[in-house]
Amino acid sequence: MSLAHTAAEYMLSDAMLPDRRGPRLKGLRLELPLDRLVKFIAVGFPLLLMSLAFAQEFSSGPPIRCFSPSNFSIRQAAYVDGSCWDSLVHHEQDELGQYKMKSLWPHKALPYSLLALAVAMYLPVLLWQYAAAPALSSDLLFIISELDKSYNRSIRLVQHMLKIRQKSSDPHVFWDELEKARKERYFEFPLLERYLECKQRSHSLVATYLLRNSLLLLFTSAIYLYLGHFHLDVFFQEEFSCSVKTGLLSDETHVPPLITCRLTSLSILQIVSLSSLTIYTLLVPVIIYNLTRLCRWDKRLLSVYEMLPAFDLLSRKMLGCPINDLNVILLFLRANISELISFSWLSVLCVLKDTTTQKHNIDTVVDFMTLLAGLEPTKPKHLTHRVCDENP
């Protein structure tokens, strides 16, 4: 008999989780994987395009070529190129023979608009990092620690029950005390559950998360307006008529009023416009999906942790509207599942619980571990019948 008890003690000792104090949980993920993907693409892609625009300008020289008259000197031709690039105004005649001016400034502002786009897309990330990440980090540290501690408390409780059962000379006293403890709910550790209840009534994290993704959608809409209103207007215009009768050439009679110029960077503008439109269009469903995840609970994580004596959010139907901080915390717990050592243990116990023949007697990890340790989760029938016979 002592050999069986020793084996049970070893089994329970092996089931204990290691105490991870000190520099633990420093690798917490405070961004969901899809949010991180959206951040890298939304911020990094315009920076990549900006470097492409600058590289083309440095490798190909000035992004404009003007067809100056043949009698122009080299200095006059260079002045024409610089003047037309500075103005970037196209002069064309309308049906009445009057000249209309059309600005081509998106060509000049292309690299800087990409930089402004990257900064705008990074603002929601900064909002999350400074407004939500510190509080979320504290919540995750506490909840992960308490989940693992609650599991360890359950194992220690079974160890204590096993020692009491070994020392108890009368089995009736042990089972009476055990049934009394279950009725009085002594096996529960309600601190974590109460904390999660408070988070269910809080909305600061979810509001920040909604604001972050809403800003991303707003800035994406602004990109569509910018590309459609400004880039589309100059998308196919490779040549334009530039007026150079200004400055040094204003008094020159042999200078024509308009000179034809060609934009050598039109292909870069087209590539940037089409690629930006494609990439940000593909990001919109991802952002919307991130928002829709707040409309449903991650019940798989909760169902696994219902094996803990102090964790019955589902069975007591405490989960109402999912748009609250608790749902956001559950999403980040799923992202940091590698830090939850107790999750893998409880997942195994849940699988074993479904295969056991005494499902109706096993509700928590305490019940299952007492069964593995050689104790019945409820009073044996022969002891129950004996009590009934003694008290007819």
Describe this structure in words.
This protein has 392 residues and is mainly α. It has one domain. Helix content is 63%, strand content 6%. It is built from 14 helices and five strands. The chain has a three-stranded antiparallel β-sheet with strand order 1-5-4, with helices on one face. The protein has a two-stranded antiparallel ribbon with strand order 2-3. A hairpin with a 5-residue loop joins strand 2 and strand 3. It is rod-shaped, with a radius of gyration of 36 Å. The two termini are 33 Å apart. The C terminus is likely disordered.
Structure summary:
This protein has 392 residues and is mainly alpha-helical. It has one domain. Helices cover 63% and strands 6% of the residues.
Radius of gyration: 36 Å
User: Reading side by side through the largest sheet, how are the strands ordered?
Assistant: 1-5-4
Q: What percent of residues are in strands?
A: 5-15%
Instruction: Give the % helix.
Output: 55-70%
Which series of helices and strands comes N to C?
A: HHEHEEHHHHHEEHHHHHH
How does the helix and strand content classify structurally?
mainly alpha
